[in-house]
Queue: 2 jobs
Job 1
Amino acid sequence: MIKKLAITLACAWASLTFADSPSEVLRASMVDKNQATLDRIEQDDVQAFCSKPRAERGDLDTMNAVRERAMAGIEHPADGVYLGDWVSGGEIANNGRGLQYSDNPADPNGGNCYACHQLDPREMAYGTLGPSLTNYGARGQSDVVVQYTWTKLWNTHAYNTCSHMPRFGAQGILTEQQLKDVMAYLLDPNSPVNQPMDAAD
Ligand code: HEC
């Protein structure tokens, strides 16, 4: 009984001590390792906003201000060309490596799209946190579709304030050329993403 009480008190003390500084708890239990450095624990404005319980996020204007800051930071391709090579885009979508302590920073990062999305309908392994993007190219290549897709990939929070998708452009995860290639993987009519399954598959 006494032992149980002591444990309960110790837990209560620990939670009181650390209650206001979760980043201190994380900091105390982690170390810098190669490119995975502890500055990643510092939240930026979107992360700080979206980490709050919904009831504490304030009114719609506050949420829109966060979203509009994301929209204001979007950078479009300098040469005005949005679509690259879908073959390379497929490799990027399939590659889940990059930015971890065990990855070589000299290697290109992947987009890890399949972790959350179905794309090529012949690919068996994919996550379902995000919607299926199979046949995404059926949307065509109008300016609206191209600009929307680029913006979504550059900084998803520009449309959905507390989106769970990584900010591939804004966070420097993918280069401009890699983003163009992923765009082609989504939108090019020849990309496997846009080839329906047939009896031969
Ligand atoms: C960690 C999970 C995650 C990863 C990784 C991810 N996404 Fe997403 N994505 C989402 C979620 C969740 C949504 C839907 C909610 C939203 O819009 O934020 C989404 C939405 C989208 C949309 C908009 C869909 C529509 O119908 O308009 C596109 C396009 C997209 N993702 C492309 C990609 C591409 C390309 C990659 C890889 C470079 C990728 N995503 C990686 C989670 C992810």
Job 2
Amino acid sequence: MEDNKFCTGCGKPLEPGMQFCPQCGKVVSGSQTEEEMKKEAKEFGKALLDVRRSWLLFFLGIYAIPAIIAAAIALADAPAAASAIWSSTEFQDWLVSHGYHFTQMDIQNYFTTGASLALASGICALISFICVYLRKYWIIAVAACAIASVLCFWSIFGLFIGIMVTFMIVGAKDGFVDTAAPAE
Ligand SMILES: [Zn+2]
């Protein structure tokens, strides 16, 4: 780095080897001090991404794991749940009073569809979690998180958090090792 002859802040002439301008105190550009400050800024940026990554893993994990477990249980339990609701007199009365013509199978399908959506959403969130954890395939991480959010449309809260996390992943893409991979 060649020494700057004049301060970039105030224009005062500088002596060779000066780290700070004696007039305004600005760090001389190209000086060793400036290089060190740049390095520190870079390390700070990396630390910030690490913190954000922890939050991403927290959000994705806290959603994916319970969603998959609950959905798997609901899926396995759908016939029993449908049967239990079907056999309740309150439900039969409710059907008659509203003039609905559901069958027990319709109810079971309703449960199965809901649980399948939740399962797919949870699995997508898990895929995103794994990508964020590995710091790899950020595009897949973003896409999987977006799909998980959309599949969570039945919960405005889940949809909102999902979209927020999706944007957080996009913002943290510099923290992935393959940021140079072909993007959109
Ligand atoms: Zn100056």
